[in-house]
Amino acid sequence: IDIIARKPLALKDFMEKTKMDQYALRLQVVKKAIMEPPEEAEEIMIDNPESISIASKKVFENKGSMSPYLSRMKDIMILRSKMEENNDVKKHLQLEYKNRVISWDKFYFGPEYKDFLTLSKYFRSKSKPDHPICIEGIVKEHSTETDRRGEKYYSFLFEKPYVTEVNIDGFRHIPSVRVNIYEKYKKLLHFVKENYQKHNKQIITYGNPYVNVNTYAPHNAKYHNITIWVNRTAQVHLFNETMEKLFEET
């Protein structure tokens, strides 16, 4: 966490040291950054010093005034994914949203399916939270869809668990999690699809969740539909990317 905080563009309004071994991370800044109209990411070719046969590799650089905040949030997201549980990171990083402390258990969900059921219940509660969250899972498949305005997008569906447990209400509760990307964000879409084709399907992403529950009586099931719309590469991490990139700068 200290390494992330010392990176260029420290962005103190986003992440600030409050104690000797603790930082405050302000999710309202992340939400504002996500809501900024995205500009298409630039594709940059950089030299690969590890191999003469591979002359260069592709990296994607996000544009926009709020992009540095999203990139820093991605670093935090990757760091958390390497931890065993939320307790390992919450000791040193406190999440805040509009002057409220947000528990890590209310921010980072997955990869266990019951985490997504917790997410669904939380975002359908009377308090109606509106802070961004992070999800982790395995992409099973993707499809092309069209929204009500006629715009095409790709929907990446997470693997669904086979649930046999029946709840007290008499239904099986099954999470149905997906990440959606509009076709117009071509470089972002190419990045995710290319990794999927290479079988790099384990993903973490963050954004604003949309949650609803559909009941399907013939299967005695309630499907908890959870969707996150992504428009920038900084909102997505696929596990083919190496942890070392996070600690390039000391």
Secondary-structure content class? alpha+beta
Helical content, roughly?
A: 10-25%
**Low-confidence segments:** 41-62, 242-250
Average pLDDT metric: 81
Please indicate the percent range of residues in DSSP E strands (runs of 2 or more).
Answer: 35-45%
Main beta sheet, described?
8 strands, mixed
Shape category: globular
Question: What is the N-to-C succession of helices and strands?
Answer: HEEHEEHHEEEHEEEHEEEE
Helical segment count: 6
Number of distinct beta strands: 14
Q: What is the rounded distance between the termini?
A: 11 Å
Rg value: 19 Å
List its traits.
single chain, 250 residues, 4-stranded mixed beta sheet, 36% strand, globular
Q: Explain this structure to me?
A:
The protein is globular and about 55 Å long. Helix 2 (27-35) crosses helix 3 (67-81). The strands form 3 sheets. Strands 7, 8, 9, 10, 11, 12, 13 and 14 form an 8-stranded mixed β-sheet that branches. A 4-stranded mixed β-sheet has the order 1-2-5-6. The chain has a two-stranded antiparallel sheet with strand order 3-4. The protein has helices spanning 2-5, 27-35, 67-81, 87-90, 113-123, 186-197, and strands spanning 15-19, 22-26, 42-47, 56-61, 93-97, 100-102, 108-109, 133-146, 152-158, 172-182, 202-207, 209-216, 221-229, 236-238. It has 6 helices and 14 strands. A hairpin with a 2-residue loop joins strand 5 (93-97) and strand 6 (100-102). It is an alpha+beta fold and 250 residues long. The model is unreliable at 41-62 and 242-250 (pLDDT under 50).
